[in-house]
Design a protein that fits this description.
The N and C termini lie far apart (36 Å). This protein is an alpha+beta fold. Strands 1-2-3-4-5-6-8-7 form an 8-stranded mixed beta sheet, with helices on both faces. The chain has a domain at 11-129: Aminopeptidase (3-Layer(aba) Sandwich), CATH 3.40.630. Strand 4 and strand 5 form a beta hairpin. It contains 5 helices and 8 strands; from the N terminus they run E-E-H-H-H-E-E-E-H-E-H-E-E. The longest helix has 14 residues, at 112-125. The chain has helices spanning 26-33, 36-39, 50-61, 112-125, 142-150; strands spanning 11-12, 16-19, 69-75, 81-91, 96-103, 132-137, 154-165, 168-178.
Length: 181
């Protein structure tokens, strides 16, 4: 008999509820995934069809907690999805994971990303007892670099031609954060 997955934790902040994705979040996430300005920093090209975003949301719903977990970032009052934050490339036994986040373009510069990522960091270091978190950030993504640095991440180096997106090789800056425990 297959081992049952643990329930998806719900994290709350003063303005947000980080919860499991639902298929109803597809349209909101498509607005994020189809936005060329937001996606210029990601590891895949912008979505051009709603079905691509639907597949992505379904993958978020069907996560493997020991390897990755994805939270829908929702407004606390309305429960409207305004982005996502995740850990991936998780090595729970080695006590490390990589963070990723994407906030709806209309919600940028409001502290939403900081609030959501801070909650996930707390979960990873607290509940999961991870020792290390890292983030791979495009060198030109000043906003994401600033967020990582404000949360205590340190730039540990540049990974040359780390990923291929479309026909382009992209570098990434490796940021790391160690627990205080």
């Amino acid at each position: 008999m297959a081992k049952e997955k643990p329930p998806h934790p719900v994290l709350t902040t003063p303005r947000l509820r980080l919860r499991q994705f639902r298929i109803e979040d597809t349209a909101a996430m498509h607005e994020c995934y189809a936005d060329t300005a937001s996606m210029r920093w990601w590891d895949h090209l912008p979505h051009t069809r709603l079905i691509e975003s639907e597949r992505a949301v379904k993958a978020c719903i069907d996560c493997t907690p020991s390897y990755y977990r994805v939270w829908a970032v929702a407004e606390l009052e309305s429960d409207r999805c305004i982005g996502m934050v995740n850990y991936h490339d998780g090595h729970i036994r080695s006590r490390r994971a990589t963070l990723g986040y994407l906030i709806h373009p209309s919600q940028l510069r409001r502290g939403i990303g900081r609030e959501a990522v801070t909650a996930v960091i707390g979960h990873c270091f607290g509940e999961l007892r991870l020792h290390r978190l890292q983030a791979l950030i495009h060198p030109e993504n000043a906003a994401s670099r600033g967020l990582a640095e404000a949360l205590g991440f340190q730039c540990e180096g540049r990974l040359r031609e780390h990923m291929r997106v479309g026909d382009e090789w992209r570098d990434a800056l490796l940021y790391g954060l160690l627990t205080n425990m």
